[in-house]
Amino acid sequence: MPEPMLPGIPATASRFEPRPSDVFLASFPKSGTTWLKALAFATLNRVAHPRCSPDHPLRHRNPHECVDFLEMVFAGCADGDDDVFAELPSPRVLATHLPYPLLPTRIAAEGNPGKIVYVCRDPKDAFVSTWLFLLKSMAAMANGAHTAEYKIEEAFELFCDGRSGAGPQWRHVAGYWEASRRWPTKVLFLKYEEMLHDPVGNVRKLADFMGCPFSIEEEAARVVQDIAELCSIDALKNMEVNKSGSQKYFKNEAFFRKGVARDWSNHMTPAMAERLDKIVEEALQGTGLTF
Ligand code: A3P
Predict the structure, then answer these.
(1) Known catalytic residues?
(2) How far apart are CA 238 and CA 105, in angstroms?
(3) Strands, sheet with 187-191, edge to edge from the N-terminal-most edge strand
(4) Could you identify the atom of ligand 1 that is nearest to the CA of residue 27?
(5) What is the pTM of this model?
(6) Does the beta carbon of 96 sit less than 6 angstroms from any atom of ligand 1?
(7) Complex-level ipTM
(8) pLDDT tens digit string along 162-200?
(9) Ligand 1 in reach of 195 Cβ (< 6 A)
(10) Does ligand 1 have an atom closer than 6 angstroms to the CB of 192?
């Protein structure tokens, strides 16, 4: 984990009070977190925030400002602070990049309050997306000053070694995959590529799992399609807030690039792809999870 996040892990474990209606969105970085935040937020809050309203929060705020990362917020709190999320009305939707074994025990496993939705992505695309994101962020932070180029070969060695944010990727996905197999009503496991293929079907699945299925009337009014459209990369990318706004560390536009599957083939050599596939295949052997 990035060093500034470390204090957030014990702080989340000791101070966060989960509720039965909580929804936790979990992911390895650059695997579709922003998209999942937008979809879950829009779906869960569709009565308070009708999807076509010009005041819809997603039209004025980046998805990361609508749904906080638990460990990041707690990492920024002083030692004596209480549960900073206690004031949020139910149902709350919160996110995490924490690997499954680092989730507070009060959240993980069946019988504990809340549900978990995990999104996973082909590790090659997650790797390329991470590398390009860091490249862009480093250039932005340098503010025009020259920085040594962060070469893909260098980033790739670290990734294969498991030395990436919340890494190794394959262990991250395996942890949540196993939890979803064990407790299917507690953990929903989504795949980014399947979401691209069928966004509407996946929004329905998400709503059913979160306990707020779409009614016959909502289906007839095409609410599901509208939510999928509101949260599509083209729609979000073109909102003013995502073109010009910024977060604590990153510009909002950095969270939206191509949003497609298999872009890795434009950046990685076949040998790199084969090597990463082999590492992941070996690590996931026997789990039933494939990419
Ligand atoms: P690419 O860099 O491959 O384009 P995260 O949200 O976990 O940081 O992941 C970022 C990746 O998700 C980026 O992938 C980004 O373009 C893509 N993405 C962001 N919003 C999306 C959306 N609404 N639909 C599909 N993909 C999206």
Answers:
(1) 97
(2) 39
(3) 93-96, 23-27, 115-120, 187-191
(4) 7
(5) 0.97
(6) no
(7) 0.99
(8) 999 999 999 999 999 999 999 999 999 999 999 999 999
(9) no
(10) no
